[in-house]
Write a structure and sequence with these properties.
It is elongated, with a radius of gyration of 19 Å. Strands 1-2-3-4-5-6-7-8 form an 8-stranded antiparallel sheet, with helices on one face. The protein contains 1 helix and 8 strands; from the N terminus they run αββββββββ. It is mainly beta and about 180 residues long. It has a single domain, classed as Porin. This is Alpha-ketoglutarate decarboxylase.
Length: about 180
């Protein structure tokens, strides 16, 4: 975890230094909040035996027309209460936060990095297994951008099959900022 803490500290310092440099280049009529975009993910899925809710707000500071830096929070809740004895009853609460970097080499293309650290609390009721641990993820991604709407894919270079909260290292995404 020491290596991950060092990386997190590096990304945080990079964000702060660039934010300070960007503020000094603001035009007199521009205010800080005029360059901040808000967005993120909201999701819910309900079925006979399954419930899933995801809330992940993000705030991005537009350093310039090419670079944006920001932070995000994540929370998800999942529960499976199956009537089939072959399927494990399951519940989870996952929360955490992270840093986001966006780069637009041309207006239609966006490259991104997302570093997040999540606290995972999982309970498998039938087997009496309770797990709680922290897991990092570092996503490198690319997407097609149309205004403040971006669709693309990202890959977790720290993906761990046993600990990750995602099914695999590749994740599609949709971002919308206001």
């Amino acid at each position: 975890m020491n290596r991950h803490f060092s990386f997190t500290l590096f990304v945080f310092l990079f964000f702060i230094i660039n934010l300070g440099a960007a503020q000094s280049t603001l035009q007199p009529e521009e205010r800080f909040w005029d360059r901040v975009l808000f967005g993120g993910n909201l999701g819910a899925s309900f079925g006979n035996d399954f419930t899933s809710v995801i809330i992940a707000p993000q705030a991005i500071y537009k350093v310039n027309d090419f670079v944006g830096l920001g932070v995000g929070l994540n929370y998800s809740y999942s529960e499976l209460d199956a009537d089939d004895p072959r399927i494990l009853d399951y519940s989870s609460n996952i929360y955490g936060g992270g840093f986001i970097g966006l780069f637009n080499p041309i207006p239609e293309i966006q490259a991104s990095f997302d570093f997040e650290v999540l606290n995972v609390n999982r309970n498998f009721e039938v087997q009496g297994i309770d797990e709680q641990y922290w897991v990092p993820a570092l996503f490198l991604g690319a997407g097609y951008r149309q205004g403040n709407f971006i669709i693309g894919a990202r890959y977790d270079v720290l993906y761990n099959e046993d600990k990750s909260v995602y099914n695999n290292g590749i994740q599609p995404f949709v971002r919308v900022f206001f």
